[in-house]
Every structure is written in C-alpha cells, then in structure tokens.
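Q: Convert this sequence to structure tokens.
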Amino acid sequence: MPQLIASVEGVEIKHVHLRKDRTTLGRRPHNDIVFNNLVVSGEHCVFELEGLADVYVEDLGSTNGTYINGKMIKSRQLLHDNDIIAIGNFRVQYLSASEDSGYHETAAMKLDGHAAPGGSGTLHASFKVLSGSSAGLEVPLVKAVTTFGKPDVSVVAVSHRRYG
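A:
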C-alpha cells in the first residue's frame, strides 16, 4: 500500500497510508492531511491513487507551490518510490506499495550517543527497517511516545525517557 512519511527537519510528524482514491493536504481542518502552518495553503495539494499503486500529486493553486525532488510542479505528476515532496519546511517522502506484509525477525535497538547540535547530549534510539518497501529507513525515536503499526491500531509503543 502506498504511503507518505511527513517530516520537519528530519523528525517524522505523520505517517499516512494512501487508502482512498483522493487524499487532500492543506492547512484547513477538513483536509485528510493537515499541516497547521501559514506556509501551507488551505487546500494545498491532492494525492490521487489510481489502480493499486499509481499515485499522482497535483498542486491546487497553492501560494507557495509544491515541489518534487526540488522542482516545482506545474501539473499533475506521477510519483516514484522515494520521491520527496517539499511544501515549505515540510518534507513528505513517498513510498510505493509493499508486497511484503509478513512478520520478520527483530534486531537489537541501536542507541546513538550524539544529539542535535546545541542539544543536551541525551541518547536517542532509532529503529531500522530491515525488509519491505521501507528497507533501510531509520526512524529516530525523538517523541515522548512513538507508535508503530497500522493506522488506528498501534502494535508497538516506545516511550522515550529524559536520559535515553
């Protein structure tokens, strides 16, 4: 199933599985994906799912534009695996459908001993995806609680404590 992973400055803020034929993104609350930031227009862009895995993105006349891999789009564009959609300081990574839905062996959690520049030096854990369409993706655990699983069904919840 195609998916979008939204981040700001490298920190994941939303993970959306594209289940509907039409998924809207914008600042207004009626959108499917809401980025409450003035750089995002009320109705900024739309993702359209055709067939099982073809996803197109179209800018809806936004003020600041929609970019794919650094280039402003002027018309409806087909997305390719790992394309990066930029909307202001938001980055949305597109991942194509995964044919693999089975369970896999887990690996030990990795703790990195470095923090962001000017940070407190606390340890940050991260998960690395070992297989499937997101193989190789590292997900930093920087929120107080990070959940993984299907939308509306949390399979794993990881709590981040103050000192690592």
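Confidence is low (pLDDT under 50) at residues 99-104, 109-120.
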